[in-house]
Amino acid sequence: MADNPVPVMEDFQFLFFEPSESSRKAGEAFWRRRHERDDDPPSSELTMKAQRAATVEWSQPKGERYAELATITQPTLVVHGHHDIMQPTINAFTMAQRIPQAQLIIYPDSGHGAIFQYPGLFAHHASRFLDADPAFS
After folding, report:
1. Which of 35, 87, 103, 104 has a C-alpha 20 to 30 A away from that of 136?
2. In-domain check, residue 98
3. What SS3 class is residue 82?
4. Closest CA to 92 of 120, 112, 72, 73
5. Are 111 and 81 in contact (CB under 8 A)?
6. What is the torsion angle, in degrees rounded to the nearest 10, for the CA atoms of residue 46, residue 51, residue 53 and residue 59?
7. Is 4 helix (H, G, I), strand (E, B) or coil?
8. Is residue 23 domain-resident?
9. Looking at the domain assignment, is residue 52 inside a domain?
C-alpha cells in the first residue's frame, strides 16, 4: 500500500490510523481536510526507494549505531503514534533517549498518522515546545 503512486483513503487508513472506531473517524476527517486544500504532489518512486533504503539501514545496528543522535544539540520534539506499522514506536523512544534535549510525545490509539489524527493537540504541543524559552536548559 505504501508503494501506491496515488493512495486512496483505504491505504491511508491502513498505514496511518488504527482500526479502532475513533481512529477510523479521525482518518476520515483527515482525508476530508487533506482534499480541501490543493492536492499534495505524490512522492516520486525515487523518493520512496530512498526512504525505504534509509529505514532498512537505520534498523540494522552496526557498532554504536545511535552515537550520531547524541551529537544533536538542537532541542528536538519527537512525536509518534502508539502503534505505527511503518516505523515501530520503539524507534521514537530510542531517538528521544539518545538525543540530549529531546522531548517525546506518543499519541494513543494512533499509527503513523498521529499528528493527522490529533491535529489540534499536536499544534498545541508543538507551540508549547517552540515557545519554551529555552525549550530545555
Report:
1. 87
2. yes
3. coil
4. 112
5. yes
6. 180
7. coil
8. yes
9. yes
Structural contact between residues 43 and 49, judged by C-beta atoms closer than 8 angstroms: no
Alpha helices in 59-135 (DSSP H): 89-98, 114-117, 119-131
Grid cell locating 68:
550520531
- AA identity, residue 9: M
- Please give the chain's pLDDT, 137 residues, in tens: 555 666 788 887 888 888 899 988 988 888 888 877 766 677 777 887 888 888 777 667 666 778 888 999 999 999 999 999 888 899 899 999 999 999 999 999 999 989 989 999 999 999 999 998 765 55
Locate cell 506518543: which residue? 106
| Domain residue limits at 30 | 9-131
Q: Which residues contact 26 (CB under 8 A, 6 or more apart)?
A: 17, 110, 116, 117, 118
**Contact between residue 107 and residue 79 where contact means Cβ atoms under 8 Å apart:** yes
Domain with residue 52: its CATH number is 3.40.50.1820
Structurally, the chain folds into a number of domains equal to 1
